[in-house]
Write a structure and sequence with these properties.
This protein is an all-alpha fold. It has six helices and no strands.
Length: 99
């Protein structure tokens, strides 16, 4: 794989975090559990951690596809995506050089 793209370990960590965040948001929307605090408690995590990862549920489909394909830039990590992630999908894609 190109050194300028994510490695397989980072790819797997990202996909796992994205999947978890989607599951959490589905639970919140269904009303069971009703809060991030309840999710954190049930998963043995800190509420802050759950809230931080929850933003990954709102990633652009194009960004998710780039991660799944292993084509996302090498600097993309769970931490980098959860810090100041733009809300607009076009801005997310542009930030990662995909737009």
């Amino acid at each position: 794989m190109n050194q300028r793209t994510i490695d397989s370990e980072t790819r797997e960590a990202l996909l796992k975090a994205i999947t978890r965040s989607h599951g959490w948001m589905e639970m919140i929307l269904s009303g069971k559990p009703a809060s991030f605090e309840e999710i954190a408690s049930s998963e043995g995590l800190a509420e802050r951690h759950v809230r931080r990862l929850a933003v990954l549920a709102f990633l652009s489909p194009k960004v998710i596809q780039a991660i799944a394909d292993g084509a996302a830039p090498s600097g993309v990590t769970v931490s980098s995506l959860t810090q100041a992630l733009p809300h607009a999908w076009a801005d997310q894609e542009r930030l990662l050089g995909l737009g």
